[in-house]
Design a protein that fits this description.
Helix content is 34%, strand content 21%. With 643 residues, it is of the alpha/beta class. It has a six-stranded mixed β-sheet with strand order 11-9-10-7-6-15, sandwiched between helices. A four-stranded parallel β-sheet has the order 1-23-24-17, with helices on both faces. A four-stranded antiparallel β-sheet has the order 5-4-16-18. The longest helix is centred in the first third of the chain and has 25 residues, at 126-150. The protein is globular, with a radius of gyration of 32 Å. The protein starts with a helix and ends in a 14-residue tail after the last strand.
Length: 643
């Protein structure tokens, strides 16, 4: 043996000197192979059911699952959300609580209809749309459920809740009835957010803001009574009898000009009558210099007067001389929302397309039937609308500007980029559009068929409920409080097919609800519980009204085709699920969960709609605590979500 072999033979084996435990698991984790096996073992051994038995009779901890939408594959945002919920539920289980986890899915609504339309085309019959939507949602749930289970989340995956289950659809109608009884539901013609791609109204929850490039316009409205205008400014007459006089407005929505019906001035602002080469111009006194600079003209102030002195004056529509269809006058109304912050201090009013405009015109006596509403649901002007009939409103803007220029009523125009409301599904600009819709009232007012009127307004109850809710992190409290404090009434009706019906019958002449509406709601709930929303859709008016002993009324009443918006679906799961389909998973004292846990965007979504429906029904929040998390983002900082 040479020297090298001798050294090797003498080298000690240190492994024999170590006292290591004998472990049954391998050195390598090999998780891609082992995790599926663990999950398979959990399922085969009924681990979740064994955990439930182990905590039978223990105090309950209820984390109510905010339902993901049954559309598309899950993403990293879903994973973060489900894993956080799983951690909390398991921790409460280990702490001695009976902590069930009932996963759920949001199944109705426009995204599914859009998916069906992309696959099968638009204008499907209602029955066919509902059948295909139900099948699509079922397939999406199966796919997502497989992926959620793969994350290792323990829950009752064999018995989840689905908002499209017949029992939940029926319970939602009963929840809607309770909101009506409490005095919160009313029908009104009001401007609501409208998405042309959706073909439907939108709620505040469905709006996001993004930059939009718009063309601004300064437009001149000629005075119809020069003597009255002069008198309002304390003058015996306008100095130059041959020079025209105008009130000038500034707007970023050129498409609303054809539907103008009034002008709004602030009663407390000082307005100036300015002599210029273009004529006498009425402008806010503090804005005269920037306005003249914008118009590239010079001028001198002839007189000033407070806005309240100009109320009641009348000005001609800027296209008054162009087409007989615009030969109307725009009266001056006084309104605080007209400001001198920018523009001209004068706001042009198209009441069908702005909440403030609508409220001002109605407050000054304009009847609903006199409000011009030429923009159709698809975004085009009505075919018979003068000059611009049939044109898409966005594409009509250059035509409108050219027509105003040719009429010598365009003082200036330029483009700006500004924050503008968009549909959060389609990412397209939306408009306000007046439509007869069903609303949940936030403040004082009369509801339909009130039986058990709530002692306070919905806004008051919701704000008080927030004070009794724990927030994690605490800044969520201010965020939700501000949203509730400033939100308008909730538009809950949608003009779509795939959703829980608003089971109303309206008189064909008067538009009034059938006097047996509350009984009809009970009939609708029973029908849906046995046959789903399809049972209601397929039933004739004679059949439904016959069930309440009023079959002869079918000739005089129209069956509403509206559905409840999808936020009402998920927003009532505190009742439809925790007191309905999965009552055993909740507390015995009622539908109040210990915790809701979602991304912070749900302050304007599920947290928000759940709070309003629960306060409307029970006068309290549906949760004791709210926990919010942030978003997962990609390498460019964009949030991971289906949108």
């Amino acid at each position: 043996m040479d020297h090298a072999d001798s050294s090797a033979a003498e080298k000690p084996d240190y492994r024999a000197t170590l006292n290591l435990p004998d472990t049954p698991f391998p050195m390598r984790g090999d998780l891609p192979k082992r995790e599926p096996q663990w999950i398979r073992d959990w399922n085969e051994n009924g681990l979740y059911q064994r955990l439930r038995l182990a905590r039978s009779g223990a105090p309950k901890f209820v984390l109510h699952d905010g339902p993901p939408y049954a559309n598309g594959q899950i993403h990293m945002g879903h994973a973060v959300n489900k894993i956080l919920k799983d951690m909390i539920v398991k921790a409460r289980q280990l702490s001695g609580f009976d902590a069930a986890y009932i996963p759920g899915w949001d199944c109705h609504g426009l995204p599914i209809e859009n998916a069906i339309e992309k696959q099968f085309g638009r204008c499907l019959p209602r029955d066919e749309m509902q059948a295909k939507s139900r099948a699509y949602a079922t397939a999406q749930i199966d796919q997502q459920r497989t992926d959620f289970k793969r994350l290792g989340v323990l829950g009752d995956w064999d018995h989840p809740y689905r908002t499209m289950d017949f029992v939940n659809e029926a319970a939602e109608i009963r929840a809607f009835k309770r909101v009506i009884e409490r005095g919160f539901v009313y029908r009104g013609l009001k401007p609501v957010y409208w998405c042309f791609d959706c073909g439907s109204s939108l709620a505040e929850f469905e709006i996001e803001y993004a930059d939009k490039k718009s063309q601004t316009l300064d437009v001149a409205f000629e005075s119809n009574d020069r003597v009255a205008l002069a008198a309002a400014f304390g003058l015996p007459a306008l100095p130059d009898a041959a020079k025209p006089a105008f009130a000038v407005i500034w707007t970023t929505t050129a498409w609303t000009i054809p539907a103008n019906q009034a002008l709004n001035l602030n009663p407390e602002i000082e307005y100036a009558l300015v002599d210029t080469p273009r004529g006498y111009l009425v402008l806010a006194a503090s804005l005269v210099d920037p306005c003249l600079k914008r118009y590239e003209i010079e001028g001198a102030i002839v007189a000033t007067a407070p806005g309240k002195a100009l109320g009641g004056l009348e000005f001609r529509h800027p296209l008054y001389e162009v087409d007989a269809g615009y030969r109307r006058l725009s009266p001056v109304y006084l309104a605080d929302y007209a400001t001198a912050d920018d523009g001209t201090g004068i706001v042009h009013s198209s009441p069908a397309y702005g909440v403030d405009d609508f409220n001002s015109c109605v407050a000054h006596g304009m009847a609903y039937e006199d409000i011009l509403n030429p923009v159709q649901g698809d975004g085009s002007y009505a075919p018979d609308f003068p000059l611009f009939g049939g044109q898409n409103i966005w594409k009509a803007v250059p035509h409108i500007i050219d027509t105003l220029r040719q009429a010598d009523r365009l003082m200036a125009t330029y483009s700006i980029t500004h924050s503008y409301p968009h549909c959060w599904r389609h990412k397209v600009p939306v408009i306000y559009r007046a439509a007869a819709q069903w609303f949940i009232r936030m403040d004082e007012g009369e509801g339909v068929f009130t039986k058990d009127k709530a002692p306070k307004t919905l806004r008051q109850m919701a704000l008080e409920a927030i004070e009794h809710t724990s927030f994690y992190p605490e800044n969520g409290k201010a965020r939700l409080h501000d949203m509730i404090a400033n939100r308008p009434d909730w538009c809950i009706s949608r003009q779509r097919s795939w959703g829980v019906p608003i089971p109303f019958f309206l008189h064909k002449d008067s538009g009034e609800l059938h006097p047996r509406t509350m009984d009809i709601l009970d009939v609708a709930a029973e029908m849906v519980e046995h046959g789903g929303i399809e049972a209601w859709s397929k039933a004739s008016a004679t059949d439904i009204l016959g069930r309440v002993g009023c079959a002869d009324d079918a000739a005089h009443y129209s069956k509403s085709a509206d559905i409840l918006e999808v936020w009402f679906d998920s927003g009532t799961t505190h009742t439809t699920v925790l007191m309905g389909s999965h009552a055993g998973a909740g507390h015995a004292e009622g539908p109040q969960a210990d915790l809701y846990l979602e991304g912070h965007d749900q302050h304007r979504g599920w947290f928000h709609s759940s709070l309003l429906t629960s306060c409307a029904m029970y006068g309290r929040a549906p949760y004791k605590g709210l926990l919010t998390h942030g978003f997962t983002v990609d390498s460019q900082g964009r949030k991971m979500s289906k949108s």
